[in-house]
Amino acid sequence: MMMQRAASLAAFFVWVLVAPLAAQDVTLTSPDGSVEVNGTLLGFDGDFYRVETIYGELTVDGTGVNCAGPACPDLQNYVAELSISGSATIGEVLMPALIEGFALRNGYVAKREIIDPTHFIYNLRNKKDEALVGKFTFRVTNTDEGFADLLADEADIVMSLREIRLTENRRANEAGLGDLRGPNRSRVLALDAMVPITAPGNPVDAISPATLARVFAGRVTNWKDLGGPDAPISVHLRDPKSGLSQAVQDRLMGPAALVLDSNIIRHATNKALTQAVTEDPFAIGISSYSETGNADVLVLTGTCGFSLRAGRVTIKTEDYPLTAPMFLYIPARRLPQLAREFLTFTRSPSAQIVIRRAGFVDQAPEELSINQQGDRFANAISLIGTEIVLADLKRLVTVLSPMKRLSTSFRFRAGSSALDAQSLSNVQQLARAIETGVYDERSVTFVGFSDGQGPADGNKRIALRRANTVLAAVKKAAETVDLDTLNISVEAFGEALPMACDDSAWGRQVNRRVEVWVR
User: What is the average pLDDT value for the chain, to the nearest integer?
Assistant: First the structure.
C-alpha cells in the first residue's frame, strides 16, 4: 500500500507542477503548499480522489493532499456513492434483492427512495447509529442507455443483458475505462434465457432454432408451416433497445444471417409481452425465462431428433443454446470500499440464495452424477456408427462414471479460441473456489468436447486444446494457490457426447465446450 501511494504521489507531482487554473470545484494541495491541482471532482472512494483536469483524468492519493472547494467530500462522515445504470430486468428486481441481502448480512438498513419511474436510490445506514454509509443510485432503462451513461461518466457500473458491442468497448478504451471485454471487467450476476412462448393450448410444442429465426425474420408466417392450424403467426418481442431484444438479434438471428422483421409487435416490458402472447392464440414471442407468466414454453429441437428444454440446470450449464447471462460491467477505476464489498457479496453462497428466490438462475456450482445425464448419453448412443465408435463411448463412460459433472461449463466465442463473456466469469468463480480449498483432496478434470464437423481424430485434438486453454486460464486466475500441487488433469472426447444437433450454428456452439468433472 505504501508503494502504491508513493507511486500515486509521484504521478501527482509530475503532472501538476503548473500554475493554478481558473477556479473549479476542487483544489488538491500538497502538505507544504508547493504543488496544487485544480479540477472537477469525478469521484472519491474514501482513499483516492478522481479529478478531471486539463491534463486528463488523474487519480490522487487522498493521504498526500488537502482538498479545498465546494465539491470536497466530508472526510469525517464519508458516504460511499455508486451509480448503476442499464437493464430494467436486472435493476427492478435482482439488484434490489441483492442490495437488501447485502445490507442484512452486514448490519445495515437499506431503504429505497423512488425518484421517478426510472430512478431510485438505496440509502444504506448503520443499524446501530443510523449513520448514512452508502448511497446506491439506480437508473433503470435498458442496456443501450446503461453503456451510454458509462461513456458519459454518469454511471460506475452497467447492468446488461448482452455482451458489450465492439464499438462500445473501443469508446470505453478511448475514455480510459479499460478493455471491458477483458478479465475482471465484467461478471455474470445471474443467468436467464431467451425462451419461445405461445398461448396455452397452442398445439405446437417444439421448434428448431433455425425455424424460430425464420419466424422472427418474417420468412415463416403461418402456423401450418410449424404443424399448427392454418392461421397467420403474430410475432411479439421486447422493444429494440432492450437487452433481451438485442440478445435475440445477436444469439438467434446473427448465426442464421437474418435480421428481425420490422413488423414484429414490440413491448416495453416482459410482463406486457407475455400477457399479449398469452391472450392471443396465434401469437409467438421470445421472453425471459424468469418471466414467462402463464404462457407455454416451446422446446428447442433439431433435425437429428435431439431436444433441449430451458430449465435451471440446462441454463446454468449453458447446454440450453439461448442462455442469456445477466452482466455487470465494471470499468477499470477504483470503486468505494462499500461498493467493492457489495460486488464480492454478489458471488457469495448467500447471494446465490437471493438470486434463486428472486426467480433467476444462480451460479452456485452443482454436482451432477452420470445417472442424472441419461439424455446426453442417449444422444451419444444414437450416433454410434457414424464418426462416433463404440470404443470411444466405452472409454468416456469408464473415465467419467466415477465422477460428477460440475454445472460450471466453458464455451468459446464463435470462430475464436477466446472464451466467451460468461466463461470468463466462470473462470474467476472456479478459481476463487479452488483458492478457498473447495476442491482440496479431490480430483478435478477439465474435459473437452467438440462439434461433429471434420474428422473425429482432429476434433479430439481440438477438444484437448480447448481443455488446456481453460485450465491455463483458471491457473492464471487462481493467484494464491499452486494448482500444480492439486490433482488436476485434462481429458478430451471430441464429438462423443453431443448436446445438440450439428446441423445449425447454435447446435455446434453448444457442442463445443469444456466441462469440469470432479471426484
Answer: 87
